[in-house]
Write a structure and sequence with these properties.
Layout lengths: L27 E13 L25 E5 L2 H9 L7 E2 L1 H4 L2 E16 L4 H5 L4 H4 L2 H13 L6 E5 L7 E6 L6 E7 L1 H4 L1 H10 L3 E2 L1
Parallel strand pairs: 3-8, 4-5
Antiparallel strand pairs: 1-4, 2-6, 4-7, 5-6
């Protein structure tokens, strides 16, 4: 018996921003934080606006810097340590290499909300948070250049889509303040244990 030909994937590549994107009203959400970032112990500040062009919402031409943070510690943790599919644990040595920072804004920031019904209003879909980086960067540049001049992007974590993440554009950098909360392993083992339990991660 000959196996039937498998159906083709019905999804077309994620579309580019529509021609009228600059005239559309961006779906937005406001927040002053608190946001969280797990930062390499080598650096005393977590307020680093990446221009490497390697991140999901980095500028394709490094025309702006972006700071990636989690809406809660869980989002920050899984985005940092959950990138290896199938991993079942994390080492104490690795955990000791990062300190947890809390980041707030002195005034409310406004974010383009690429979640929920905001996606269809913009002409996009959920692949902005989970699909091609090339497409995501193209949209991020269009959002950055939009006349509303938002302060960043709110999106769902690719590794735990119950959680929200934020990309803060460098234009809001002078309004941010930070607090070093220390190493999770040493300073907040109870919270770390709760995170490990949620993701079924062991500690070795």
């Amino acid at each position: 018996m000959v196996n039937p030909t498998p159906p083709e994937d019905p999804l077309i590549p994620h579309p580019s921003p529509p021609p009228d994107f600059r005239t559309r009203e961006l779906p937005t959400i406001g927040s002053q934080g608190t946001w969280y970032r797990l930062n390499d112990i080598e650096f005393s500040s977590s307020l680093y606006f990446d221009r490497s062009g390697k991140g999901r919402f980095d500028s394709p031409a490094q025309g702006y810097g972006i700071l990636y943070v989690g809406a809660d510690v869980y989002a920050s943790w899984i985005e940092c340590y959950g990138r290896t599919h199938g991993a079942k644990g994390v080492s104490e040595v690795v955990l000791r290499q990062r300190n947890l920072f809390a980041i707030d804004s002195q005034s409310e920031l406004v974010f383009a909300d690429v979640t929920g019904n905001g996606l269809v209003k913009m002409g996009a879909d959920a692949r902005l948070s989970s699909g091609s980086y090339i497409a995501a960067r193209q949209w991020a540049q269009a959002i950055y250049d939009h006349p509303q001049a938002v302060d960043g992007i709110r999106y769902r974590s690719r590794h735990d889509d119950d959680r929200y993440c934020y990309g803060l554009f460098d234009r809001c950098g002078d309004r941010l303040k930070e607090q070093n909360l220390g190493n999770l392993l040493a300073s907040n083992p109870k919270l770390l244990a709760e995170i490990l339990e949620r993701y079924d991660y062991g500690l070795f």
